[in-house]
Amino acid sequence: MSTPKYKLFYFNWMWIAEPARYLLSYVQEEFEDVRYNYEDWMKDDGKINKKAFPYGKLPCLEDVENGLKLGQSFTIARYLGRKYNLVGTCDAEAAKCDEYADVVKDMLAEVEPMWRANEETKESIKTNFLAKTLPRYFSVIEQDLKKNGGKFLVGETISWVDFLFAHFTEMLGIYLKTDILANYPGIRAHQKGIFEIDEIRNWRSARPVTTY
Ligand SMILES: N[C@@H](CCC(=O)N[C@@H](CS)C(=O)NCC(=O)O)C(=O)O
Q1: Residue 16 belongs to what domain range?
Q2: pLDDT tens digit string along 59-111?
Q3: Which of 33, 128, 164, 175 is 20 to 30 Å from 65 at the Cα level?
Q4: Which of 9, 13, 14, 16 has the most ligand 1 atoms within 8 A of CB, as the residue to mutate?
Q5: Ligand 1 center to residue 59 CA distance, Å?
Q6: Shared domain check, 59 and 108
Q7: What is the 58 CA–ligand 1 centroid distance (Å)?
Q8: Distance separating alpha carbons of residues 123 and 34, to the nearest angstrom
Q9: How many CB atoms lie within 10 A of CB 139?
């Protein structure tokens, strides 16, 4: 068996590591998909060497060929995008990829406090998100997609942010238990198009089943 070129370390979730898994599947690079048990990680009993990972957090991508151990999920996805020419065709397109990724980051920053919030706070975060945050960003991206032909967010070819955006439009819907794409047929079609790519469909049917 050949040694995989990459090791991706995360928990047994999709959440912020899944765009990297999509990208590695799309470019058909073998990777070791290392999944820690979150409860074991949080025990802090020294059995897991957290210092081996940047900032003691996950995900971490190890690029075996050059020894790089990279933290920060969006940086990991962008790194793979750069390595495999999935960053648009000019600086302006690369910047638009970054812009859409930062939109996702803004949305995540609003919903992530729900993990630790009590029921009442959870409900108010969700209500605010669905009423204000989502329309603010999705109405723009819906139009951008339309202007761009519907298949890809940026330019005429697929980019790393297509995988990231398709993943989070699905993940946020699951997390909020709401059909967040009901008013955004263009974003729904974009997500469907990305998930129908052979390599992505294959990964989605082979990956471990997890809720998040
Ligand atoms: N901004 C970072 C966030 C990383 C992060 O907070 N990861 C969480 C899991 S989603 C983690 O490692 N939690 C365990 C810990 O902080 O010890 C990224 O996008 O990678």
Answers
A1: 6-85+198-206
A2: 999 999 999 999 999 999 999 999 999 999 999 999 999 999 999 999 999 99
A3: 164
A4: 16
A5: 7
A6: no
A7: 5
A8: 33
A9: 12
